[in-house]
Amino acid sequence: MKNTFLTFTITLCIILFASIISKSQDFRLGLTASPSVAWMNPKTDGYTSEGNRTGFSYGLIAEIQFSEQYGIASGLQISYLGGKLNYPVDETTNSETYNELERTYRLQIVELPLALKMKSREILGIQYFGKFGIGMGIILKADGDDRFVNTQDNSRLIQSDKDIKGDIAFGRASLILGGGAEYQIGGNVSLLGGISFNNGFSNILKNSNEVSGEKKNARTNYLELSLGILF
Known about the structure:
Elements: H1 2-23, E1 27-42, E2 48-49, E3 53-65, E4 70-93, E5 96-119, E6 126-150, E7 155-163, E8 171-186, E9 189-200, E10 218-230
Antiparallel strand pairs: 1-3, 1-10, 2-4, 3-4, 4-5, 5-6, 6-7, 6-8, 8-9, 9-10
């Protein structure tokens, strides 16, 4: 049911964006590349976040300008996100029982952002902007590195590059808040730079914890430095 709703929402966003483009007289396309720092925010008892991971996004950006100072910013980008979670397990391998797992998540997501972009008037050739909107994404791939721990004798078992797509939800939804600057270098060509916070509000985990029976729940967040060019 959640997968159907997310697919419907993404499709609706695409249709809405296409409709806006068809009526717009000022449409621009460009490219973007964005290094990021990502982490996971668990909502399940017994789950803790174990640090950040560096990530990266790239893709197309699109802008529709309604006036000199207001427009819609969108695009299509591939994002590599992740994080680390520690949680209780009951795992027996080679007669050794492990009761704790630290998992490193590596996710590949195709995202469609849709945001209101507000720009200042030009100051010394530069326009400053802020943006607020939503992001909808489909998780294409999920890999993980597992470190099982027996807290009684501190023995460990490491398993790397596991396919964990079966434990990951179909998609991801988020709120986007950011700002930056745009510098016109000639004609319609502009350089963009900014920083934004992408706050996930949908659960990206599936299934229940085998120890507590509680539903797994965690959200992904990331802070990115965006660099781009618009034509």
